[in-house]
């Protein structure tokens, strides 16, 4: 009989089966069966089994796939991806293992005739959450096995803090004296990786002084994504891309329930804008360490961030799911909430500033973590001792020293996009050495998610000009800038500035490209290109071309166009200017020349549909 619940899984003949002795190579004495039911629980077991059985030849290790979960998708693929032996669920019932290890409490483990102890590892931080019961229409405490298994005397529940044993005994008396104080190997791993923060940031492409905002969402409708699925896009639309990066960590049940395809569809705009989607099975620990601010909910990743002392905001929190009196419930009371209806950037900046000037908050969160997690560094040793004890097997005569692994480098699940269309905001102010222009950019792919209360948008008049108001000076301007390789033609056709992606080989080639751009795109006001060995050329429709000795690449051409745009809009001369972009600062001297054959200004554009392009007269040559 074949189990067809997830493809064809044939029964095993080795290392377990009817006659495994005929086929085995290793001199094994014990058999351990790992129950794999969800991706979440399977990952937790995989994280610890390697170190626990390091260099061990006396133990056969096989996985039994229980397909009964609503979140079984991806489990079989995960097990096969690590090269483990997988047996179908019906065959597990016919085995006589020496120990069963699992991080799922929902599998039907009270099998008649089985006498092996069952070690249940937590797949989160403690027992702080109420979840749906797959056996009824009620909710239950996550992490507690059914009473039938507890009554059998076979179950042992690993806990990460002594208080959890008392909590379980009060809620489920049958758990009394059935717990083992192990600690939390996942927390130990996080602590081990703190010193690699710079390497993790580099792996994510977050360099310099950019701040990494990490979003963490558990599953169900009261999670961060369940309550605010547009939050990743809104953050990317409001936070300057040269100052911030945004990463998203999702609970494995989200992908198992809805599929990667639907998740990518939901996140299509933010992924195009540079969202770092971290795979739910790998990389979230390193991303958490790399982050400057965590925006989470009532999931375990949020609690791990608190235990590390990370600056924290709650984007959602379900009081109904957090068990009263637990450290997670306390976290929900202590941590400030993100106000989804208010502008996000001020809230993010305030949280980051408070974390610098108010270390007491970080210390308070760390103390809260200590209420659920004992001192790190010993969980694997305790777990190995417990496992060998349950197996009735002596530790190896020369046990391998347990490694203190740090998380692997994070690797986003999607290719990094080439962001070729941006909304550019320029602020101009006078200094003793001349005008200074502060440039900031946000990806145009998420422009429609921008906060409608943003003064740069709210104060834009119908003709595209920002009006002078209490929250916006006349020297702040916004425009749409696109590379000529932008695939969304609606953006290209509405851009105020078009930038040549490739470096022009000569001034003549640059001017031919400029003439072609103005001919093809009547909405374009400035065409900018870099020239090999010639800096950048920013062309206006009236024949003026501004020379700027900046880097000969798309970035240099974009900066040059932003400077020209800002100075012309503010009525300042096109001469010496300093500028900032993110944590970079520079200076350049602009020089105006005239092109031959430029078209008349009168044929220039009307305002774009994005409300960011000025009418052409604003760029008319000033006396």
Please summarize what this structure is:
By secondary structure, the protein is α/β, with parallel strands linked by helices.
Chain-wise SSE layout:
Blueprint: E1 30-36, H1 39-52, E2 59-65, H2 75-81, E3 86-88, H3 89-92, E4 99-102, E5 118-120, E6 130-132, E7 139-141, H4 147-151, E8 155-159, H5 162-171, E9 179-181, H6 185-193, H7 197-203, E10 211-217, H8 224-227, H9 231-238, E11 244-250, H10 252-266, H11 268-272, E12 276-278, H12 284-290, E13 293-296, H13 300-307, E14 312-314, H14 327-334, H15 344-357, H16 359-370, H17 379-390, E15 421-431, E16 434-443, H18 455-458, E17 476-483, H19 489-494, E18 497-499, H20 507-520, E19 526-531, E20 535-540, E21 544-548, H21 554-570, E22 576-581, E23 584-589, E24 591-594
Tell me what the structure shows.
By secondary structure, the protein is of the alpha/beta class. About 30% of the residues lie in helices and about 20% in strands. It has 21 helices and 24 strands. The strands form four sheets. The chain has a ten-stranded mixed sheet, with helices on both faces. Helix 1 links the parallel strand 1 and strand 2. Helix 7 crosses helix 12 and helix 13 crosses helix 16. It is elongated.
Query: Structural class, from helix and strand content?
Result: alpha/beta
Work out the helicity level: 25-40%
Distance between the termini: 90 Å
Q: Can you tell me the overall shape? A: elongated
Q: Which parts are unreliable, with pLDDT below 50 for 5 consecutive residues or more?
A: 1-7, 457-474, 600-616
| Residue-averaged pLDDT | 88
DSSP, total strands: 24
Number of helices: 21
Cα-atom radius of gyration = 30 Å
Strand order of the largest sheet: 23-22-16-15-17-18-19-20-21-24
Strand residues, percent:
15-25%
Largest sheet: 10 strands, mixed
